[in-house]
Amino acid sequence: MQRLCILLCLFATSTDAISARAPLPSAWQQGNLTVKGKVKDINGNPLPGVTVLVKGTKKGATSDEKGNYVLNDVNKDAIIVFQYIGFDAQEIKLDGRSGVNVVLKENQKTLDEYVVVGYGTQKKVTKTGAVSSVKGAELQQSPNVNVSNSLVGRIPGIIAVNNSGEPGTDGSRIYIRGRSTLGNSNPLVVIDGFPRDGFERMNPNDIESVSILKDAAAAIYGSRAANGVILVTTKRGKGGKPTLSYGFNQSFVTPTRLPKMADAPTYAKVVNEILQYGGDVPRYTDDQIKKFGDGSDPWLYPNTNWYDATIKKISLQNRHDLSLSGGTEKMSYYVSMGTLFQDGIYKNSATNYKQQNVRANLDAAVSDNIHLRFDLAGRLENRSYPPRSAGSIFRSLMRGRPTENAIWPNGMPGPDIEYGDNPVVTGTNAIGYTNNKNYIINSTFAAVINIPWVQGLFVDGSFAYDQNFEFDKSFIKPWTLYTLSDVNDPTHKLNAASRGVSAPQLNEAYNSARQSTVNFKLNYIRSFGKHNLSTFIAFEQATIKGDNLAANRKYFISDKLDQLFAGGDKEKDNTGSGFEYARRNYFGRISYNFKETYLFDFNARYDGTQNFPSNRRFGLFPGVSAGWVLSNEGFWKKNIRLLDYLKVRASWGQMGNDQIAPFQYLSTYGFSNGGVMFGGDLNKGIYQLRSPNELITWEVANNYDVGIEAKILGDKLAFEGDYFLTRRSNILVSRSLSMPAYTGMTLPQENIGRIENKGFEMVLSHKNDIRKFHYEVIGTLTHAKNRILFWDETPGVPSWQQSTGKQIDAPLYYQAIGIYKNADEVAKSAHMDGARAGDVIFADVNGDGKIDDKDRVRMDRTENPTWIFGLTLTAKFRNFDFTMLWQGATGASQYLQTESGLIGNFPEAYVKDRWTVDNPNASWPRAYDRGREYWVNQANTFWFWNTNYVRLKTLDLGYNVPAVLCKRIGLQNLRVYVSGQNLLTIDRVKIFDPEAPSGSGQFYPQTKIYNVGLNVTF
Q1: For residue 46, is it within any domain?
Q2: pLDDT for residue 19 is more than 80
Q3: How far is Cα 710 from Cα 717, in angstroms, rounded to an integer?
Q4: Is 953 helix (H, G, I), strand (E, B) or coil?
Q5: 150 and 92, same structural domain?
Q6: Alpha carbon distance 356, 344 (integer Å)
Q7: Which long-range contacts (CB under 8 A, 24 or more apart) does 579-582 make?
Q8: 983 is a domain residue
Q9: What is the CATH number of the domain that holds 93?
Q10: Mean pLDDT computed over 801-829
């Protein structure tokens, strides 16, 4: 009965309240009293089986199935004690009252024993699936405003890569247990019970917990669950008097790492070498090179550090959060609002991100059997950028020659690198602006109705409506750069030149999307002695609709009026489109356990989506899991003392992935740019977009998992480990590689691909108290590696070039095995035409005495790590608290090759120890010009960097002002803290951040954050 009530409270909508006292009688009773009342939980549900005692006596009673109790012959000054497993005990003095109603609150330890799963919660001791979770309080320790950057290292199974720190686009790419498909690998994100976008932009202070479903537990989400599921639960009112909380933090942001580029004297020498290798005359004399170094003539012989000229030392970031929570027996609430600001790292930056967010989570107990929930959340995401992209700006920074002025000595901007690109200017509003405003509204209404005449039966229904409006406006205008009019003029007169566009131009786009979802569940939760049953069946339907509109105009006569009507009529354009999408699902779950020892779960979803033809639209996705708590067995308790708790579990689930381009089963057509002239009008023609595949269907993932959970010395030492195997089939692949090009045929995608992904994960934790010192150590480890079992391969390629058997996106490169020290080494080896001393040596893989395409080898490393680990250290002593998170990744490599040469500068490391005649044992090849050399224009492993790393991901040190002092100034709690993110990185790359995206180093860097803040509770 007790378990039944706990589960009912967790399945029902959370509604918090405080103890409600009945009014005093009109006259004090002179004798002993008969005390009556009702006991409820914070949701307003009656609690049967509560022990009600008269303190200091043996007199007591137990509440009935409706929560009612009666105590006879009680002294009017007695103290009544209410006790219930999993709830905080309460003591209430009668003071002559004969009626006392009470609301019991679950204690935090009990709440920690539960984990959120799909469409409900489960006790951790009875869960049979691979489900991991993290509390919102842990995520709040990270000063990073993007929640997706705070998961890796904290939760086993999460593999994440962060390629950028640009405000507004600084999220991590997340995989759950790695990649298992050639297509879309994004996990499904469910927020408060509904699939929703925007998880990374949520206010971390609003998050109660985040759970990750990694095996058969995810099958309840059917055709969208194959990549795993992220469940986010927001905070709700806890009852009691109103509690007002305010948080503020101020952050100081700097790049984790910027490449150190060659200085002007070094670059000038390298340019001379490049020209000499090509048989040309050197550009710079020794005297000129000397002037670059001594700073004697900054107008003609500068030594420019383009990064210093463009990037600020420190950028600012701040956040304000305010929340109010509380409630009564009938109503509870959690209301919050917040604002944040992130500035870009450019000087006079046009880049910044602003966000305002509000949330109201309300719960009401209309009666003992009817409970309502209403949630409303809104967010404005305001992104501002210059019209030039971050990639374009950092391309200019990488290519900026130190022998040219970014800024003239008189403070005017120097000339461009090309196409008007001087990053000192293009990172600012001087060239115009791009502004993106995204308004998001999420609303939910839910009701839970207990069926009073059937114990354990209740229904719940919910309706969610989400809407977003996005407006994007980009206004670009000419800007002015300056060049020397005459290098021989001692007055250094500058000529102004208009660059970029010839006249202002404006692009605007409007997008709107709305999603409505209805959900209905019939639940039955009951305990029969030692048998515990929890089950439900449900129906859900979702509809998504959207519209978009875009327009542009050029030839504005002025840059002072940035509205469409002010543009010219010539070459103006507009376009628009819309979409509609729907899905329908039937699903359910049966959870059964005997004595919380023998555990069984079965869930299934009959899922339908319009992405597939009508006769193949629905599919069944089952999942089954079982567990055995050996430590509950009598033989274990009698004979095994070392382990206090041991559970083994196993699962199998079949899930789908329907994240594909829609309507591939139809012959679809598009409008061509050209057309046919009728009279004076151009009539657009149409053409077939694709050949249809009427047999198209979703990917199918068969997930297998075996896990073990153990505890020693109570919960002082705990271990959880899983081995998993995923076999994904029906992956959409085109047969384009095996189809000869001369046929001219464009084939549709077919469900022919197969992938295998396997690995393991584990968590080892230890916690202890030494007098007033409490500490915890938690280590996580995840290993996941995939391989292609089948897809379309080019016929006849050598075995060492085949991608089958390798990881997804495994690249094909020549193997670099060294650097030619002299001409004799070149002559004695197989080499490419034109090879010379100082060039990179390619391996003759097939041994035919020549280097050609057949010598390329398929690498079995990609940009995604195969190992992720984390180590969290927390400690509390008196009023101080400390948290440190180390996170690392191995198994990944990135192709990083800069665009250097006569076209632009080199990273200092590339040329500091470069090959020359006088330095034949160099670690870097000779000076080169962009892609002129074979070892630059042919992809090879010399540029394939090992990006293994270890980071000090988060560091947090806080101090809680003593309660006595807080009380004097009218506060419940005051905490001040300092924290940091990405404070230290240990890796072998050194030049760029190890999470840099593949390419030429032209990306907005990841960021390091120093933070101070406070949390106040009134």
Answers
A1: yes
A2: no
A3: 8
A4: strand
A5: no
A6: 18
A7: 579/544, 579/545, 579/546, 580/543, 580/544, 580/545, 580/546, 581/543, 581/544, 581/545, 581/610, 581/662, 582/541, 582/542, 582/543, 582/544, 582/609, 582/610
A8: no
A9: 2.60.40.1120
A10: 95
For residue 551, list its beta bridge partners: 508, 574
Q: Nearest CA to 923 among 941, 936, 909, 940?
A: 909
CATH number at residue 188: 2.170.130.10
Pairwise CA distance, residues 258 & 1002, whole Å: 11
Here the tokens at position 656 are 């789908």
Residue 185 shares a structural domain with residue 213 = yes
CA separation for the pair 448, 11 (Å, rounded):
9
- Given the structure tokens 């991608």, which residue do they identify? 803
Please report, as a single letter, which amino acid is at residue 425: V
* Vertex 668: Cα angle to 667 and 669 (nearest 5): 130
| Whole-number average pLDDT of the chain | 89
Residue 123's domain comprises 114-235
Going through 610-744 in order, the beta strands assigned E by DSSP cover 618-629, 645-657, 669-678, 681-688, 699-712, 717-733
Average pLDDT over residues 615-638: 91
Q: Are residues 118 and 231 in the same domain?
A: yes
How many structural domains comprise the chain? 2
pLDDT at 1: 39
Measured distance CA(94)–CA(292) in Å, rounded: 90
pLDDT at 743: 63
Query: Do 183 and 163 fall within a single domain?
Result: yes
* CB-CB contact of 894 with 945 (8 Å): yes
Point out the domain boundary residue: 216, 235, 254. 235
Mean pLDDT over residues 809-816, rounded?
96
What is the 3-state composition of the chain as percent helix, strand, coil, each rounded to the nearest 5? 15, 50, 40
Show Cβ contacts of residue 297 under 8 Å, excluding neighbours closer than 6 positions. 291
Burial class (CB in 10 A: 0-12, 13-18, 19+), 122: buried
**Residue of 604, 702, 587, 600 lying closest to 656 (CA atoms):** 702
Q: Are residues 142 and 177 in the same domain?
A: yes
Percent of the chain topping pLDDT 70: 94
For tokens 């870097």, the residue is 924
Burial class (CB in 10 A: 0-12, 13-18, 19+), 600: middle
**Residue whose pair of structure tokens reads 């008189």 in the numeric block:** 410
| Gap between the Cα atoms of 577 and 721, Å rounded | 49
Question: How many Å separate Cα 796 from the centre of its chain?
Answer: 41
The mean pLDDT value for 711-730 works out to 92
How many angstroms separate the first and last alpha carbons of the chain? 38
Query: Sorting pLDDT into bands at 50, 70 and 90, what band is 235?
Result: very high
Q: Is residue 852 part of a domain?
A: no
Separation CA 212–CA 232 (nearest Å): 9
Residues 80 and 172 in one domain: no
| The token pair that represents 602 in the structure block | 């079965």
Give the closest residue to 536 by CA, choosing from 130, 121, 194: 121
> What does each C-alpha distance from 894 to 855, 862, 887, 998, 1012 come to in angstroms?
21, 7, 19, 5, 34
208 falls within a domain: yes
Evaluate whether 750 touches 693 at the Cβ level (below 8 Å).
Answer: yes
Same domain? 173 vs 224: yes
pTM of the model as a whole = 0.87
d(CA 627, CA 645): 13
Residue 237 has which token pair?
């009112």
Shared domain check, 86 and 61: yes
Query: Where does a domain end: 235, 269, 303?
Result: 235
